[in-house]
Every structure is written in C-alpha cells, then in structure tokens.
Design brief:
Length: about 350
C-alpha cells in the first residue's frame, strides 16, 4: 500500500520553493524500511527537494525489512527502494538489481556500522568486553539483512562458530517484545530499535555499538531495465536525496522530528539520539570502499553458507548517476570528509577484489 504523503502534503510542511509547474514533474514511487538511517527519503519529500529537482515522489508505507521492500519492487509497486544486505540474496536468486548510490554508509573509509548495536536483557551474562559470552545465547536477528551480517561479525570476532550461538529470525519491530518477554537473550538491530529497547525493557543494556565490525551496506536499488530507461530521473532523484542528506546532517534535531512522522510510535527523544548516530554515516556518495563493502558482505554470506553462490559486484553497482551528481553538484557533499585518492572512482570504474 502506498502512503499518500505526496507532493501536496510535503509543500504544506516545507517552505515554498521555486520549481516547475506540478504538471511537469516526473512521477516516481519509492520505498524505504522503518529505520532512522532511511530518513533522507522522506526528508527530501517534506523539505521540497524532490520538487526542486523536478520530481513528484510518492513513498510507500515503510517496510519492516529490506526483504519486504524488495518484494514490493519486484511486484512493481515501487520504482526504487533503499536496501542493503537483502539485495545480495535477491541477486543470487536471479533478481536483476543495480545499486545506484548509498543511502547509508561511508565513502571516505571502509568500516562503518555506527547505527548498529547489540542489546541484551538483564541477567543474560553477555559482556561487551568478552564477546565469547555470546556462546549458547539466543540472539535475535533479521536473516538476510544488515543486522544479520553484523551479528555474524560479532560471533566471528568472539572466536565462536555460528552454530555456537542460537540465532532467531525476528523482524526489528518485534525484537523489543521478544526481549521483554524473555524469549531471547539479546538482539542486534539498526536504530531506533536498540535505543527503544533500552528505554522500554527494564534492565536492558547495550552490549556493543558499532565498532567497525562490518562496512555498512545500504544502497538505493532499482531494477536494471528501469534504470536504463530512466537515467535522467535517476540523476534528479539522487541529487534531491543528496541535498536532503546534507540538510539532515546540518539539522539533526529537525530531522529527528521527521522520523517521528514516519516510524509509528517513535518517541522524539529516541529519534534525536538515533539521529546523532545516523548522521555519522549519512553519505550518499560511492567509492571503492562501497564496492569492497558489498564484496565483503557477499563473500561472508557465501563462506558461511547463507547463500548458494557469490557474484561480481561490478555487475550490480551502477555508479554512473551518483558520480555525475558528485561531479556536477559537489557542493551537496562539501561538509563530508574527502574521499581518499585511492578510493575515488569515476564513471566506468571496475572494482578488483584484494582477496
């Protein structure tokens, strides 16, 4: 179901902006997951950046996981979604996807997982100073998503085998309830859920946050054929999102208020705390680091048997459009760290794995 917060409502929320007549705007349907790190999309709508760049965007009701958003994309309900690790399983199963830019991550460095955390119940015995205490514990994760990749990295860092921890497949919105009921010992998740759990579950505590255990994988994704037919629209879309990200980085408290309108029941104080983490990896650019991040994720999931085969990431990243935005509108990224020369890319870049 498509959420009817579209251009007309957005204009009532945003200051008037000079733009083409509404009849001239290009229509586009977009999808997102109910996570703080996905907020650049509704910010672009509410602040009028899509209209400024010639688009009339409709955003679907936020999905629980990236798997759900990809199902909607495959069904033709949306033209583009924001998704990370679930893209990998979809590609392995034959879905012809291309990643167009980051929605969250870091082009300037390889490691980035600030928006991820492991939260445990009181008395669980899980110790952030000794992750081997995860052994034998029941830990919730959403299989095939970025939080699954994060817990696998924590288990590996602890020197444990995957089967020494009981992983329970759980959607992020259900994790707090599972922790409260004692059905699990801990969960891994993206914001706001780790922060929500610590406020709503007596005695719950953060075991670890971030730590560069993984390189975040979070992309704007579309079907290859759609991108080939809508290149100019993609350029406009990524430019508007990049402008929204810059606004979010400069106005985190206001951005947190946007989150409360898009994630049902989200407390404003929780949103503000989560946004402080989010803006640390709100980087729409692509670099060699992001190719490496996707390659590492694919390799890890294949090595551990969670996917049947791997693939060449060059075939499923189309950097042409974000590279054009980076070149034509560098001011949209002027507040971000410079991408190191050895990681900078141009149109036509080909990634070569180090391993």
């Amino acid at each position: 179901m498509i959420r009817r917060l579209t251009l007309a409502v957005a204009l009532a929320l945003a200051a008037p902006l000079a733009a083409s007549a509404q009849d001239d705007l290009i229509e586009l349907n977009a999808g997102m997951v109910s996570g703080i790190d996905q907020l650049g999309l509704p910010i672009a709508l509410e602040q009028g950046f899509f209209e400024k760049h010639g688009l009339d965007v409709t955003i679907a009701n936020p999905y629980a996981t990236g798997v759900d958003s990809l199902n909607a994309l495959q069904a033709g309900e949306v033209d583009t979604v924001q998704v990370g690790v679930p893209m990998i399983g979809a590609v392995v199963r034959g879905m012809d996807l291309v990643a167009l830019s980051n929605y969250s991550g870091n082009a300037a460095q390889l490691g980035s997982d600030t928006t991820m955390a492991l939260v445990a119940r009181e008395g669980s015995g899980i110790d952030g100073e000794d992750l081997s205490t995860l052994k034998g514990k029941k830990v919730a994760a959403s299989f095939g998503t970025i939080n699954h990749l994060y817990v696998l990295a924590l288990i590996e860092a602890a020197g444990l085998a995957v089967d020494e921890v009981e992983l329970v497949n759980t959607p992020p919105p259900d994790m707090t309830v599972a922790l409260l009921s004692g059905g699990i010992d801990a969960f891994v998740g993206w914001d706001p859920w780790p922060i929500v759990a610590q406020k709503d579950v007596p005695g719950a505590y953060q075991v670890v946050r971030g730590g560069n255990y993984i390189s975040y994988v979070g992309f704007n994704v579309s079907m290859r054929d759609w991108v080939a037919e809508n290149g100019e629209t993609v350029d406009k879309y990524l430019a508007a999102l990049s402008e929204a990200d810059q606004w979010m980085r400069a106005n985190p408290k206001d951005a947190a208020q946007v989150a409360t309108r898009w994630i049902p029941g989200l407390d404003p104080a929780v949103a503000e705390e989560a946004m402080d983490y989010n803006i640390q990896q709100a980087d729409r650019r692509l670099s060699a680091n992001n190719y490496e991040a996707l390659h590492a994720a694919v390799s890890t999931l294949h090595r551990l048997g969670f996917i049947d085969s791997d693939f060449d990431v060059n075939e499923h990243i189309n950097a042409t459009h974000i590279v054009k935005v980076m070149s034509d509108q560098p001011e949209l990224f002027s507040d971000l760290p410079e991408i190191p020369a050895d990681a900078a890319i141009s149109d036509g870049y080909t990634f070569t794995p180090k391993d």
